[in-house]
Amino acid sequence: MPMVLLNCDKDIPEREKHIYLKVDGEDSRDFLPVSNAQTLPGTLSERGCAFCGAKLVIGGVLKDTIQMIHGPIGCAYDTWHTKRYPTDNGHFNMKYVWSTDMKESHIVFGGEKRLEKSCHEAFDEMPDVKRMIIYTTCPTALIGDDIKAVAKKVMAERPDVDIFTVECPGFAGVSQSKGHHVLNIGWINEKVGQLDAEITSPYTMNFIGDFNIGGDTQLLQQYWDKLGIQVIAHFTGNGTYDDLRRMHKAQLNVVNCARSSGYIANELKKQYGIPRLDIDSWGFSYMAEGIRKICAFFGIEEKGEALLAEEYAKWKPQLDWYKERLKGTKMAIWTGGPRLWHWTKSVEDDLGVQVVAMSSKFGHQEDFEKVIARGQTGTYYIDDGNELEFFEIIDLVKPDVIFTGPRVGELVKKLHIPYVNGHGYHNGPYMGFEGFVNLARDMYNAVHNPLLKLAATDIRTGIATPAKEAAE
Ligand code: CFM
Asked: N or C terminus of the chain: which is more exposed, having fewer CB within 10 Å?
């Protein structure tokens, strides 16, 4: 059932196409929220820009690569250190940020010389680092700076360095989703196939669409090590630039985040004939299913069962402890897109949690198809939700906890509704068996935080009043 939310003076009827309440007996495919469309004038979107999708989400994760952002300093600062993707080499990617720091005169007279100088400065400063990604931003794309030509010139002068360029200014698409696409396609066409891989196992795969948030990649790596599977490239969690040039050497592409990285898996299939296998890495049942699928592909089912038995014995009792205390909790998920369908059924099955509202910043139709197929009835499904709609939804469904980012999270915290960081996590990793226990623990701590019981807030006025529990 399509919905318009009215918690503002002037409602926007076109938003009706973006909000859906799932009810019994309807064919949900008839009512998928419109998605991946331009944000409507008059609503305040919490989307990121296309440049951010390329840099912050995918490229900036690499642990050995200078990220040269050709633009004003804000583009660099705002995509630096706002996401938690550690690495096993001391978090090089989170320590540094590089920018050409464009000023008015460079916009007027052109910024290519400045970019060239910045590239040399960066390599001189860090003599051990030989890899770089250069990104355009809105102003440098508008003035037509040729970053590919600059990269070529720098590489000609420094034969030991390699540079990849991403031409995806902020305005290139309706959301950060465009940046994922541009980086995926650029990489497969320009860099994959350049280096050979040293094969050390009869079983090889790439793990695609996992960005080592809170250490996810490193946790899952323990499973692949135990199973004897060699990961040729991690796209891009804890990954290296050169490993990504070897992706064509793997026998299998395992995809976790289909939204951000399905494109490269599809191209690897098309160009190199490598099969694509999609799995969910969050939740016990899903993770087990994923491991079984991977092991079946390689014919190592027994090893898989042994690993699962070990992991279940270790972590299932802890999960059940939380399930006992969390069942019936009402949860809202307001993140990018895929985590809606990855999480809704896993929290329901593994923790007895009911997901009452989900909002996706940039998911496409295929994301909504999956999320509505897996989600419950009585739940709201929203595309590109805005703050006023979030207030309305909170009023309607009264969630006990919201998984979202710090921006919206700080907002709901003022309403004394607990939030857990659904993007960077509170205390990750959240993937795998141990990770899902961490997620349950963070949810439990949030829901039972005694501070939040001390006062209640009227959502419309924002005025805090002592809660009943506090008065008693
Ligand atoms: Fe994939 Fe991601 Fe997500 Fe995402 Fe993102 Fe993210 Fe996300 Mo924040 S790649 S689409 S663009 S799973 S940063 S690690 S959490 S919005 S749902």
From this structure: C
Mean pLDDT, rounded, for 328-349: 98
ipTM surpassing 0.85 = yes
Q: What is the pLDDT of residue 462?
A: 60
Pocket probe for ligand 1: among 174, 182, 257, 286, the residue whose CB has the most ligand atoms within 8 Å is: 257
Residues 6 or more apart whose Cβ sits within 8 Å of residue 187:
164, 244, 264
Probe ligand 1: pick from 178, 259, 346, 431, max atoms within 8 Å of CB?
259
- Nearest-CA residue for ligand 1 atom 14 is 211
* This prediction's pTM: 0.94
Tens of pLDDT, residues 417-443: 999 999 999 999 999 999 999 999 999
Q: What is the pLDDT of residue 42?
A: 81
Q: What is the mean pLDDT of the chain?
A: 93
341-397 pLDDT tens trace: 999 999 999 999 999 999 999 999 999 999 999 999 999 999 999 988 998 999 999
Q: How would DSSP label each residue in 241-257?
A: HHHHTTGGG-SEEEES-
DSSP string covering 39-90: PPTTS-B----HHHIIIIIIGGG-SSEEEEEES-HHHHHTTSSSS----TTS
Check if 257 has its Cβ closer than 6 Å to any atom of ligand 1: yes
Q: Whose CA is nearest to atom 17 of ligand 1?
A: 336
Cα distance from N-terminal residue to C-terminal residue, the chain: 41
Closest residue to atom 7 of ligand 1, CA basis: 336
Q: DSSP string spanning 386-418?
A: BHHHHHHHHHHH--SEEEE-HHHHHHHHHTT--
